Amino acid sequence: MKRSGFILKFIIQGSTSSYRIFFGGLLFLAILMPAKIQAQGNLLITPRRVVFEGTRRSQELNLANTGKDTAKYNVSIIQYRMKEDGSFEEITVPDEGQNFADKFIRFFPRTVTLAPNEAQVVKMQLIRADQLKPGEYRSHVYFRAVPKQTALGTEEKVKDSTAIGVKLVPIFGITIPVIIRVGESATKVNLSDLKLEIISDTIPRIHVTFNRMGNMSVYGDLSVEHISGLGIVQQVGIVKGIAVYTPNPVRKFQMDLDNKAKVDYHSGSLRVTFSSQSEPKPEKYTEAELKLQ
After folding, report:
1. In this structure, are 146 and 62 located in the same domain?
2. CATH code at 29?
3. Residue 51 near residue 181 (C-beta atoms within 8 A)
4. Are residues 203 and 136 in the same domain?
5. Which of 150, 182, 214 is the last residue of a domain?
6. Contact, 43 vs 119, CB < 8 A?
7. Which tens digits make up the pLDDT trace of 173-204?
8. What average pLDDT does range 255-273 have in this prediction?
């Protein structure tokens, strides 16, 4: 998941009255954009998520700067709820059935500066494990880019002394889920409400509803295969890394299928499979089939 926003930098010149009129009408807008990948700007992070379970007490996140300039990031913890459509909303109080993990994790360093093509490790540790009750705990580590500061006297001069200049400085960030699991998982998941629609007469799009039951979240890959009337099977779509987090019982999902595949989306059937990412043989969580006509 990534998170990005904008900081407004103001270059103000002119009369005092003009300044007061402008400042009185000033609105500050912050924009949050959840994402599905752990790469934003020139920062790459692996792994995509951190899970503490069993006897594991420490893990590492690998950060890499793929850009041409030195970049600085502040590291902090934020809390999210997952909405039914899979998007995220920042919160401060957990929903019923949701547990935050922030009180039980420690990480360092809290500020990272990376030169071009440089990498660094952020270490994460599980603490106060004896205070954890059975269940799942989740928070998100937030890597927020620190904008470069312009030295005084080097800002671009405003040619019109009566004008007010506004400069937008993008601030990028990435969030990584950190999950603590205590006890045995009793979670199950199934797929329902399968529906295929053709967008603009060319793009096949399938709609799926995930139904989660139990005490833990689920995470895996969704694949779609077309089965012709003659029994020929062809993969027409795959999405990796889909999660349904606690306490959500439902997540609605849609994906575009391969419109270049030589298959007839008006006949045969579509087989939708949700599986783990474990290697070498993924575990199949659930499967559903949609008859086409």
Report:
1. yes
2. 2.60.40.10
3. yes
4. no
5. 182
6. no
7. 899 999 999 999 999 999 999 999 999 889 99
8. 95
pLDDT value of residue 278? 75
User: 131 with 159, same domain?
Assistant: yes
Clarify whether residues 169 and 44 are in a common domain: yes
pLDDT > 60? residue 24: no
Instruction: Examine the pLDDT at 14 and tell me if it is beyond 50.
Output: no
Predicted local confidence at residue 280, as pLDDT? 75
Residues 262 and 125 in one domain: no
Looking at 129, 150, 182, the residue that finishes a domain is 182
Could you tell me the residue range of the domain that residue 206 belongs to?
188-291
Q: State whether the Cα torsion 102-107-112-114 is positive or negative.
A: negative
pLDDT band at 153 (very low <50, low <70, confident <90, very high): low
